Amino acid sequence: MTTSPPDAAVHVRDLRKAYAVHEKEPGFMGSLRSFVSRKTRQVEAVRGVSFDLHPGEVVGFLGPNGAGKTTTLKMLSGLLHPSGGEARVAGFEPRRREAAFLRQITLVMGQKQQLIWDLPALDSFLVNQAIYEIPDDQYRATMREFTDVLGLDGILKKQVRKLSLGERMKCELAAALLHRPRVLFLDEPTIGLDVNMQESVRAFVRDYNERYDATVILTSHYMADVTALARRILVIDQGALVFDGDLGSLAGQAGAGKTIRLQLRSPVTAQVLAGYGQDVSVDGLSAQLSVPRAEVSERAARLLADLDVADLTVEDPSIEAIMADLFGHRTPPAPALETV
Ligand SMILES: Nc1ncnc2c1ncn2[C@@H]1O[C@H](COP(=O)(O)OP(=O)(O)OP(=O)(O)O)[C@@H](O)[C@H]1O
Question: Are residues 185 and 302 in the same domain?
Fold first, then answer.
């Protein structure tokens, strides 16, 4: 067993999880056969993941569908027992689910809800106040703060079932953070929300992180969440950590090109620009193209020399482009808006 660095908020070494999956042929005969002899297959969802997070760090946890993100977060919050390896969160072993540990963490799953459906959110908050033994003055202060940052005025006394998806998600977040946890596991916290609501959730998470120096692990299919909140990125693929670093290095590793944006003084066709780079698009006197990272200066110099350019800017590739480079067709599109 390794010892965790004394200041690590999250310490993970060689963490593993294998699920036993029962397999059954389709149809009635399949059911009969599986009744007589049951076939079991091991799915290695997480295969030896290691990382450390220091207090206050916000990391984006990315990977294609089925990579092992949710399984890792469930192990770190103690909902699943690892098949091997070691995890410590805020100094606790998550699998023991000690009360003192549960007071330090929260797990928010955008697809699941903890609020009581038929009651106003305020009632669920009071239940959480009792469960986490939050003193009255702290409860009132936190409620004031969350109401302010999340704009909860006017929705707390409505039945949860009557709230819009975005209003409900705001209440879910407030309920999950009411006990002021120091470590946040946020699994798709903005899923299905419209762009404004996604921005409110991001602003809330940013504010909470700064106010309480909270450590945050965030998974999201909306890359804007990740770029807005996280400086460090962990990428998991088929249960293994394949990247740990900043966005710029991830772009370098993925081999994604840079984007050159042009403002032209006289029109140029896409065919002409195709001689300078790829993924060319032209809209009147504006154009953009993608060029290999190592050749940015040479291509930019040629464009400036050959064409009548009013302005030229160079941008890093979007994180969507990076993930597409890394995982190609396995990268899921952002989910469609959910209706409730
Ligand atoms: N309860 C379970 N029983 C069996 N297999 C499971 C179970 N939960 C997850 N898996 C499998 O483990 C693997 C990892 O799943 P996990 O949900 O952790 O991935 P993920 O990265 O969160 O994916 P997504 O982005 O689609 O939510 C997948 O192959 C999945 O099918």
Answer: no
Q: What is the pLDDT of residues 179-198, one digit of tens each?
A: 999 999 999 999 888 888 89
Q: Is residue 133 domain-shared with residue 161, that is, in the same domain?
A: yes
**Cα–Cα nearest to 222, from 325, 316, 110:** 110
149 belongs to a structural domain: yes
Q: How far apart are CA 320 and CA 219, in angstroms?
A: 14
Q: What is the pTM of this model?
A: 0.82
Q: State the DSSP H helix or E strand holding residue 43, giving kind and residue range, or none if neither.
A: strand 39-53
For residue 214, report the distance from its CA to the centre of ligand 1, in Å: 27
Asked whether 63 lines ligand 1 (CB < 6 A), one says yes
For the chain, give the mean pLDDT.
88
Quick check: CB of 66 below 6 Å from ligand 1? yes
- ipTM, two decimals, is 0.97
Q: What is the CATH number of the domain that holds 292?
A: 3.30.70.260
CA of 63 to the centre of ligand 1 (A): 12
